[in-house]
Design goal:
Layout: H1 3-30, H2 32-35, H3 39-49, H4 53-70, H5 72-81, H6 83-102, H7 109-139, H8 159-183, H9 186-217, H10 227-249, H11 253-275, E1 278-280, E2 290-291, H12 299-326, E3 353-354, E4 376-377
Antiparallel strand pairs: 1-2, 3-4
Helix pairs in contact: 1-4, 1-7, 1-8, 1-11, 4-5, 6-7, 7-8, 8-9, 8-11, 9-10, 9-11, 10-11
């Protein structure tokens, strides 16, 4: 195996890791409102991916960086020719990260609803466009002999590319629903399992059609260096998705998630094996086609990168594995407190005991911080002293007056 082969393989591994990890949190984002139907349900969904979503995005940064360093001509042609879809993906990833961070900063239902829409849209668009981009790479785009892209954005919208886009979209929704079945309980889990059924059936059919079509586009099994391998890997991936669907229906959530992850891995594996040794086929001048030789960096660059990767990649993988282990338990709506303000705020009836509030907000008070209160009884309207508080005065009337 040459260094060119090695880096083609490593880049395939990085994209596979990204699709497996970011794929399920794209799916969670898309399902935020249909599965998490109320505020507590949506907070459950966000808490399932809250500790890991930003770490998952490290994989795409590493994959793009490795492509730039190992195959700069591939990077230049892909990112210039696919500028519009890749820019849309980048904008969505930025807005999505902002939405995760800022959703909880406001106090109104409208504020949260706007950020929920941003999370859903900015999960949907990348899930679709990543498939379109990789489908276009397999299909080929018009390149000149000097490897310059000479087409339009329409060349990234071939029927095959759109099919792969629908495949990644449905596969990520299914992967996310299976992940939610594994990480949630009660009604949220039940809704996720129902959605997984429909998404899984569509993803399985689209998967098998795309794998067979892929072989025909690239010349058939006999005309490819690893054509038979690509076909076998792709068909095995489709079977893995179908198995994950069955396992989800019988409640074997852990194995179902493993099986759906295998399906995502196999899709990326099938794409890269059907391409090898090409990295950017040309539908224009055949001399414009890029492969692992004419797109690669110098041997010295690849050697240095190999040593750096050997030293650092195991630490990155180990850290992510540890973080998933730490946050492995299920999350229930019972663990999510009700919102304290805004349209969904619950009112505290007058005379109700506030249990063990040391310096907490008395629900129902307009500005009701009770400093130092240990267990205050709200005796009625007005600005009454809370018995048992160390000087704690509720400075505004409670929401509901008591005669």
């Amino acid at each position: 195996m040459t260094l060119n082969d090695l880096w083609f393989l490593l880049i395939a591994v990085l994209w596979a890791g990204y699709f497996v990890l970011e794929g399920f949190d794209f799916g969670v984002g898309i399902l935020l409102r249909p599965v998490g139907r109320d505020e507590r349900g949506r907070r459950v969904l966000l808490n399932t991916i809250g500790p890991v979503w930003d770490g998952n995005e490290v994989w795409v940064i590493t994959a793009a960086g490795a492509t730039f360093a190992a195959f700069p001509q591939w990077y230049a042609t892909l990112f210039s020719g696919g500028y519009l879809p890749l820019l849309l993906i980048l904008v969505c990833l930025i807005v999505r990260g902002l939405a995760f961070e800022y959703r909880g900063k406001g106090s109104t239902a409208q504020w949260r609803r706007n950020w929920d829409i941003a999370i859903t849209v900015c999960s949907f668009v990348p899930a679709l466009l990543w498939g379109v981009v990789f489908g276009s790479i397999v299909h080929g785009v018009p390149l000149r002999a000097d490897h310059e892209f000479v087409g339009t954005v329409g060349d990234f919208l071939s029927p095959f590319a759109l099919l792969v886009g629908l495949l990644t979209l449905s596969l990520f929704v299914f992967h996310g629903a299976v992940f939610l079945s594994l990480k949630t309980t009660d009604e949220v889990r039940a809704r996720a399992r129902r959605i997984a059924t429909g998404a899984g059936v569509f993803a399985t059919v689209a998967y098998l059609v795309a794998v067979i079509w892929m072989q025909q586009i690239r010349g058939g099994v006999s005309g490819l260096q690893f054509g038979a391998t690509s076909l076998v890997v792709g068909l095995a991936g489709g079977v893995a998705v179908a198995v994950a669907l069955v396992l989800t229906r019988v409640g074997r959530d852990g194995w179902a998630f493993v099986s759906s992850a295998v399906g995502v891995l196999a899709l990326v594996g099938s794409i890269f094996t059907v391409l090898f040794p090409l990295v950017m086929p040309s539908t224009g001048d055949p001399a414009g086609t890029l492969d692992i030789h004419n797109a690669a960096s110098s041997p010295y660059t690849l050697t240095v990168m190999s040593w750096v990767a050997l030293a650092l990649v195991p630490f990155v993988i180990g850290y992510q594995a540890w973080s998933y282990w730490v946050f492995r338990k299920r999350i229930s709506t019972r663990q999510i407190p009700l919102p304290r303000s805004g349209a969904h705020a619950e009112r505290q009836p007058a005379g109700e005991v506030v249990p063990e509030a040391r310096s907490g907000v008395v629900p129902g008070a307009r500005s009701g911080v009770v400093p130092g209160a240990r267990s205050g009884v709200v005796p009625g309207p007005g600005s009454g002293v809370v018995p048992g508080a160390r000087g704690g005065v509720v400075p505004g009337p409670v929401d509901r007056e008591t005669p």
